[in-house]
Structures are given as C-alpha cells and as structure tokens.
Amino acid sequence: MVHYPAWDQDEARSIVSGLSHLEGATLPILHALQEEFGYVDPQAVPLIAEALNLSRADVHGTISFYHDFRTTPPPRKIVKLCRAEACQALGCEAVVDELAREHGIVVDEHGGPEKAAVETVYCLGNCALGPSALVEGELLGRVDADRIVALCGARQ
Fold first, then answer.
1. Structural domain count, the chain
2. Which residues are the signal sequence here (predicted)?
C-alpha cells in the first residue's frame, strides 16, 4: 500500500509551474499531481487553469473525462477486478453480486482513504484463470468473493 503526503498547495503549485512549459501540459500535470498526492485536489483546478491559460471548466472537464483521476484521497487499498468477457464467462458477475449481497462491498463505489475499494477493469490478460484481480501489482486468478474480501483487509 502506498502512503501519500497530505495535499500541499505550495507543492502543487511547484509541480504545475515545473510542467506548464510542456506542449499539452494538462495531462502531464494531472498525472504528476496524482502521483505525488494520490489524487488531484479540486484546489488544483484554478492553479492549472491560470498556468495554462485555460478555463476552469476545461481543466475540470479533463479530470472528469479520464476515469483514473481521483478528486479525493484514494482508498487504503485498491483491488482491481476484471469484468471483461472471459472473466464474465468464468463468473465475475456472480462475485460482484455476492460482494454486494453478502459483504456490503459495492464495486466501483469509493469511500474515504480509510476504506478499501474494488474497481472494475477490463482485461488483465489472465483470461484462462478468471475471474482475475490485480492487487498492488500482483495478478491473481480464480478469485471469489471471499478472497476479494480478504484482499480488502479486515477493516471495510
């Protein structure tokens, strides 16, 4: 699990100014902020807009268009569950249903940084061993709801 520093407006300003000279700098800036802090705080929007001479709406639109950008601190652990066709054929939707019904874990619903989250991804390249999951860089095959719950940790 990665631990990120708290959002720091001065550090964010430094990141923005350090990358604002790049052509098409919006995405590199957003990636750098998220890499540093684990998310892109809404306070970054006016910083980026001003540095790149964009509207706040343009910057916000970019953040909201790309589903990987977070605007709140990330969960303490992320379990990526494949829901592509091969994993569907091997029961991933039953896993998703059981997680919600039996464990109260709703896939793609995020709480605060104290929680774990289960996110949908489409294809982890482990099709023969589905349903598959990815946790902290480790690819796992033949996961079921109980294993996902265990991967999320005791606190949920």
1. 2
2. none
Here the tokens at position 17 are 């100014």
136 Rama class: left (phi>0) / alpha (psi -120 to 50) / beta:
left
155, two tokens: 């606190």
Q: Under 8 Å CB-to-CB from 53, ≥6 apart: which residues? A: none
Give which of 47, 28, 36 is closest to 6, Cα–Cα: 36
* Structural domain that includes position 99: 77-152
Tens-place pLDDT, residues 35-83:
999 999 999 999 999 999 999 999 999 999 998 899 998 888 889 999 9
3-state secondary structure 7-23: CCHHHHHHHHHHHCCCC
Tokens of 79: 């379990």
Task: Please say which residue of 65, 87, 104 terminates a domain.
Answer: 65
Encode pLDDT of 125-144 as tens digits. Answer: 999 999 999 998 899 999 99
